[in-house]
């Protein structure tokens, strides 16, 4: 028998709830990518549980701080996401998502870039009716350019 749910890599979750969950999670990924690219730190924080782990740290404030240290002094960036694979098990879910991320330098590094490709491996919890990230890991498979364009925001002048 071909074309069954298991062969397509989907999880049977009963009715439309599974497809709704898949849509809500992929929309959450898109919102987070947009928040990263627009430097909307509150939007980044809103994607995670309070005790989330990601980017090598634990706690939403620390997650935002790490991201801010990389993107805060960078020029424009664009997170392109695709090949979403989402599995849902009750109020828990896992998503695997390919990413291609372009970072343009800023200031004296404006003529440089850093681009990477890889895969996000995210764990989600349904919390008060919303899907929030509780763990995020990124495995980079391709690196191009100057990683130095990722830097903290400039110190305010006094």
Provide the fold topology:
Blueprint (H helix, E strand, L loop, with lengths): L16 H22 L2 H6 L1 E7 L2 E2 L1 H12 L5 E13 L2 E13 L8 E15 L2 E16 L13
Task: Explain what the structure shows.
Helices cover 25% and strands 42% of the residues. The chain has helices at residues 17-38, 41-46, 60-71; strands at residues 48-54, 57-58, 77-89, 92-104, 113-127, 130-145. With 158 residues, it is α+β, with helices and mostly antiparallel strands. It is built from 3 helices and 6 strands, in the order ααββαββββ.
Strand content: 35-45%
Order of helices and strands: HHEEHEEEE
Number of helices: 3
Bin the helical content.
25-40%
Task: Identify the overall geometry.
Answer: globular
> What is the CA–CA distance across the termini?
71 Å
What would you report as the Rg, rounded to the nearest angstrom? 17 Å
Structural class: alpha+beta
Q: Report the count of strand segments.
A: 6
Strand order, main sheet: write it out.
Answer: 2-1-6-5-4-3
Could you report the average pLDDT, rounded to the nearest whole number? 90
Give the uncertain stretches in residue-range form: 1-15
Q: What summary fits the major beta sheet? A: 6 strands, mixed
